[in-house]
Amino acid sequence: QVYLVESGGGLVQAGGSLRLSCAASGLTLTTAIGWFRQAPGKEREGISCISKSGGSKYYADSVKGRFTISRDNAKNTVYLQMNSLNPEDTAVYYCATGQLYNSSCPRGDYWGQGTQVTVSS
């Protein structure tokens, strides 16, 4: 069984910060983890991934320089530190895992329930 649980979302003013957590169990501990987001009226967007060792990372252009992904395998948790947030970052954020797609990112075989991030102007 593979379970992913996101937390840390909330309401924040533009320019503020949030740290999202993805708590993993089952086979996800030694598997790459990806973060995705779904904004109203938009397609699901892959924004960041991290390899099982933490040595390889990916960031979408939309978040590069503002978001930082990390993992603590001892805590079975992947984090997404989000700084300099703007209203365009408003979305439901999901973490996912599964079979490897590349060195940093998994296929979306398993998903968490999502956590809402709302950035006010």
Describe the structure.
The protein is mostly beta strands. The protein is built from no helices and eleven strands. The strands form two sheets. Strands 2, 4, 5, 6, 9, 10 and 11 form a seven-stranded mixed β-sheet that branches. Strands 1-3-8-7 form a four-stranded antiparallel β-sheet, with no helix packed on it. The N and C termini lie far apart (41 Å).
Features:
121 residues; mainly beta; seven-stranded mixed β-sheet; four-stranded antiparallel β-sheet; 0% helix; 49% strand
Low-pLDDT ranges = none
Distance from first to last alpha carbon: 41 Å
Class inferred from helices and paired strands: mainly beta
Number of helices: 0
Query: N-to-C SSE series?
Result: EEEEEEEEEEE
Q: Residue share in helices?
A: under 10%
Strand % is over 45%
How many whole angstroms does the radius of gyration measure?
A: 13 Å
Q: What is the number of E strands?
A: 11
Shape descriptor reads: globular
Q: Could you provide a short overview of the structure?
A:
The protein is mainly beta and 121 residues long. Helix content is 0%, strand content 49%. Strands 2, 4, 5, 6, 9, 10 and 11 form a 7-stranded mixed β-sheet that branches. It has a 4-stranded antiparallel β-sheet with strand order 1-3-8-7, with no helix packed on it.
